[in-house]
Specification:
Number of helices: 4
Strand content: 5-15%
Number of domains: 2
Order of helices and strands: EHEEHHH
Distance between the termini: 60 Å
Protein name: DUF2007 domain-containing protein
Number of strands: 3
Pfam families: DUF6164
Structural class: mainly alpha
InterPro entries: DUF6164 (IPR046162)
Keywords: Membrane, Transmembrane, Transmembrane helix
Shape: extended
Organism: Luteimonas marina
């Protein structure tokens, strides 16, 4: 029976490509499910054979460890170079999104505080 190796929710394309590549290189049979049109499922990469699952998980753990080190080093270099994305960059690129998030946070904080305000009266 097939087992899920990687849920593709918020997984960058390059990471999914790398996972497919190391599974192909190891000759581990796998298939991919696509995201559902209504957002119920994000899709995933599945290992077909139960016997291949331990090896696939081991390779996945190795890959994630190497990727984390590489991405942290890239982020640190970008911060040193001054090219790392900042909050100001995000505000300039997506001002409406930032405003909507701030409004949503304020509304949620108001809802959380509402019982204390009502009790205090």
């Amino acid at each position: 029976m097939a087992k899920l190796l990687l849920n593709l929710h918020n997984v960058p394309d390059d990471e999914a490509d790398d996972v497919r590549a190391f599974l192909d290189a190891a000759r581990i049979e796998h298939y991919e499910t696509r995201p559902s049109p209504f957002g119920i499922s994000a899709g995933g990469i599945w290992v077909r054979n139960d016997a291949d699952l331990p090896e696939a998980k081991r390779r996945m753990a190795d890959y994630q460890r190497e990727r984390a080190l590489r991405v942290r080093a890239e982020q640190a270099q970008a911060e040193r170079d001054g090219t790392a994305e900042t909050f100001a960059d995000i505000v300039r690129a997506q001002p409406l999104r930032v405003v909507m998030i701030i409004v949503a946070i304020a509304l949620l904080l108001g809802l959380v505080a509402l019982p204390a305000i009502l009790i205090g009266r």
